Amino acid sequence: MVTESPRASTAPAGELLAHVNTLRADAGLMDGYARRLLATAAALSGCPAAPGWSRAVLERQAAACFTAARRLRTAAEALDTHTRAGSRPLTPAGLSAPVPPPPG
Amino acid sequence: MRADGHAPGRSTPEGRDAGQDVRGLLRRCARDVVDVAEGIRAVSARTSTVLFAPHLFAGARRSPRTGLAAQWALLRALTDRQGLVGAVLGRESLAALVAVTSLRLRIAAVLVDHPEFARDPGMRRLAEAVAGHGLGAVRALRTLLRDQGAQRALSGLTPLMAELPSVRALLDARPPDGGPGDGAAEAVELADQEKQFIATEGSFLGFLRTIEVLSAGGRILVQNVRGPDGVVRYVVQTPGIAPGRPRDDAPHDLAAGAGRGLSEAHPPYLRSVLLALTKHGIPRGADLALIGHGEGGLAMLHLAEDEEFCRTYRVTHVVAVGSRAHDVQPADPHTWIATIANQHDIMPGRDGQDLRDGRAAGSAGDPRPNRYEVDYAGPTREFPLCHLLREYIEHLRTVVPGARADVDEALTPYRGPIVRTQAYRLRDRGRPPEGYPFLTLPTRSVPTTVGPVDVPVRYADSAAAHLCFPVCADTARRLLPDVGWLTPSLLGRRALAVLSLHEHRSTTIGPYTEIALSVLVDDLWRPRRYDIAADLLRRPDLRRTGRYVLSLAVTSEEARVVAREIWGQSAMRTTAEADLTGREIEVRSRDLGLTVAGRLGPGIRCPEADWVLYGRRGGSTVRTLVRAHGRPRLHPGTGVRLRLDTAAAEPLAGQLRRLGMNTARPLFVLACPQFMAHRSAGAVLPR
């Protein structure tokens, strides 16, 4: 039977927290990409030579970026919850104790 | 249209025409969108890393409720409909979809000012691939970029040269022959006819004319010049990639950037140049001027940025014509750098921007020391004409003579007698020559009035449709030269006339379109009744029948001269547009009043369409052997129609009318959307 020492489990928790931060930052980036695509669509809407499809396609892809940003945020929260749960002592049922929401 | 090629009324107060602004906007948007695509791909990669992080897996075993929830949330972010990495579930990634949007915008930008590019075979294939939306476009584009056969056409897409690699990477569609190259250089002799064009005194235009001579065959030239002060200096002259000509075994990566030092992985082209300079025996510390056109100019600018190279030699001047590199940072701050570009030239610069992103028109001079940039509005707008060195030389004489004088003045140390001239053929040992092994042939140079031409003439990428009509044998005989031994081969009681339509996209004599009318003729000495059938089983070089070319129309002067002087065919120059790559074929020549259009019906594979062509020169018949390598198909001729919209009688229209081909449908069409071929030097027969 293998037991993990509390010291050994802090390193993975730190790594997972870094992942949480990465996911949150990437969610922000995806929001930014969506806005850039919308700005491009807006710029092209006033351009007579812009292809007719461009606005609709860019808006659709911007929407996909917004969706991806939302999913990344959700994943970041879920991973944060999991990380905090992993750093608490296990309950008899093998489940982690409730975790308070992250600050901010 | 004004003399400078601008339509009046289109210019903005800043001197930039409206089309240019529109194109600039489209191009900037395309660049912004591809940046977004690259960002999305990076986010996808990081999210995948988190999903497969070992600690998350281990943690999920300990805390399954939260661990699995986190994994599920990550999986959704990646593989949700239009998720980051949709390919996991058979969808396409968001980055790939956005990359295709960028490429479509970029294509639109090119076509705004250069609608002629819509006819380019590579552009056509690219536009067809991305014509749809979403997943279909991504998959079609990925298939195209991975297709070995399409690489030739895509490599001619000069205006998209900067975009395609990043789109390739975003679609994970590496080119099929993306292996590492291996540069090499060997000293070669110039042909006698080429030597006549090499100047004996150093001058800017003289160097450019030398580069023009070198444009075929992947060569560079190094000249030793004795300057006015008696010091021998060296001038390296490099041509760019000639559009529509095979690259053979020359390195393909002229425009690729240099490494951070000579010891690092240089692209094969620059390695080849370095080897050539070493072979030339240029002493360390010698003065060098680097002069190049197009991609050759970019390569020279890369060299000037290389610290180790500039420690070995003193690069005093770099002159790049038809290339733009506003951001160049020479390793030696004393290097004088000049770039000269026609605003209409859409040769991309080093950062993916077009030449037209450059400085305002006529802005010779630069606040930065040792920098000289000329970005002028030349009279030539159409690509690739506006990119040809011949055009630049003419513009430097007539449109921007001041730039010529300035560069000549800067090059004063190199303006003296040329004491040695040596050409070097650059090779890439890491890749087979283009068209290998079919097009890898011994060649010899034949002088013509347009310069020396290597024979056999090689065709690396062509499409053809041969429309075969049964015609009246007597009429056909009357159209043949009035010699007794040229008689039409008979199919029953009819002769066979062939209208051959060719779209030659890449040949050793440049790209051109060809329309040829020929009649099948018997052996000149021993005509036999069944030769026409027996020849189907014979090796091409042993065939007795051949096609006598009655009329030939071609779209380039070089092709006309070669057909006339080497193959003895009565060729004329015309304009024509051809699309022979799909099931719908169309060839249109306004000059000839001829249109061939229609849809090819179901076809069957047939053997290679090798031919023997006959022409006449003086009192002799010239026999030319044509070998082809492709996948020709035989189609019924019912769907294809030849139309004549001219009352002219000569030369081609009259013959077509007399043979009745304008009112009949072809019996069958032999079509091949892509093939290679070579045509031998004509053998003169004593009849």
TrEMBL record, chain A:
This is Uncharacterized protein. It comes from the Bacteria. It comes from Streptomyces alanosinicus. Residues 80-104 are annotated as: Disordered.
From TrEMBL, chain B:
It comes from Streptomyces alanosinicus. SUPFAM superfamilies: Acetoacetate decarboxylase-like. InterPro entries: ADC_dom_sf. Residues 1-21, 347-372 are annotated as: Disordered. This is Acetoacetate decarboxylase. Residues 1-20, 347-359 have a biased composition (Basic and acidic residues).
